[in-house]
Amino acid sequence: MTGQIQESKTPHGSIMTIFSMPVIVAALGYFVDIYDLVLFSIVRVPSLKGIGFSGQELIDKGVLLLNMQMIGMLLGGILWGVLGDRKGRLKIMFGSIFIYSVANLANAMVTSIEAYAILRFIAGVGLAGELGAGITLVSEVLHKSLRGYGTMIVASVGVSGAILANFIAKSFDWRTSFVIGGVLGLALLLLRLGVAESGMFKGMDKQAVRRGNFLSLFTSRDRFGRFAHSIMIGLPSWFVVGVLITFSPEFAKELNVQGAVSAGNAVMFCYLGLVFGDFASGMMSQLLQSRRKVVLIFQGITVIAIAVYFLSSGVSAAVFYGICGLLGFGIGYWAIFVTVAAEQFGTNLRATVATTVPNFVRGMTVPITLLFQLLRKPLGIQNGALCVGALCMVVALFSLWRIKETFHKDLDYFEEYL
Fold first, then answer.
1. Inter-CA distances, 399 with 211, 217, 230, 292, 295, Å
2. SS3 state at 414
3. All structural domains of the chain with their residue ranges
4. pLDDT per residue as tens digits for the range 295-326
5. What's the distance, CA 390 to chain centroid?
6. When comparing pLDDT for 229 and 45, which is higher?
7. Domain topology for 17-194+214-415
8. Comparing C-alpha atoms, which of 175, 211, 168, 189 is closest to residue 126?
9. What are φ and ψ of residue 415, in 5° steps?
10. pLDDT tens figures, 371-390
11. What are the φ and ψ backbone dihedral angles of 3, each rounded to 5 degrees?
């Protein structure tokens, strides 16, 4: 059951509106978000060595810290999503960036694994609010014929933050890299002062409708189905980033890659591929006027890229990095995936879904890496990863089959629920 609200209109075909202030600020916010999100993967080894760990502990403690960050994002996704529908899109963009910026400044001073883990959790909570709020705001301020372009810009600019993270990590020590991330985030708060709230959100003030009821996603089979399938189509993304890229140095050794492979370079090339993938998938969705077709195409590219990754035995480090770029291009349907989630639900539940969905996918890194850890012992690092990757792809393809096309969907409605 749905009710109507007044939509904030943007002239159809006015292409320059995709460069409006909300789009620019959302893109820069996601840029800083990605910088901080992937920085740990880049500085995992030097930072853990810096506080006294070595050998196998670099993997074991690395998984612990990655999972703490992802658990924080999982819980933060719920928190910021609910607040986004109740208090406004802009407020959670301010709150989330402040928290993860302060957490990263403090992260520069850690001397123990316990403090490191706590701060990665807090940073994860903060990082959780940025993308969902930005995509929700952009989806609501742009006309339906242009919102795919808007989210394409947000994602394409945003993921390039990983490239800056790699450059900074190579130019400075790991502690300074965390400080720079925190400073960038705090500086971005000033830019956001000139951005107006979504007109569609303001329109809810005139409606007697409940907002941001997270539990309502589980009280209806239809809503739960839309929510769950929106999450599952994104699983391959964080299998690639959380396993194949984060632990690329270990995989490179198993594959006898010629030359040293660093996680920082692997992340940089993966996210460079993501920049082009997000741009290409966003453009293709507009040209094909379909979200589902594009997601299917890019999931197919991801399968091919994973196969090439594990068949790269004996290649040079340069070729291996090129394969990491292909993996990034394949999972470059991230912008479309988050847009689909935002388009699945009404305005009074949209921020909740758009914020929780990507963070639930990120949070799925926990069971994905734990399953990888469990299987790599009896099966080996390669076969263990292949089993986990195959499972992620099967689930993602099934969910894509079940989800509805949303390209032409109007967003000027709200969900009615008990």
1. 26, 17, 7, 11, 11
2. strand
3. 17-194+214-415
4. 999 999 999 999 999 998 889 999 999 999 99
5. 21
6. 229
7. Growth Hormone; Chain: A; (1.20.1250)
8. 189
9. -80, 135
10. 988 898 888 888 999 999 99
11. -125, 160
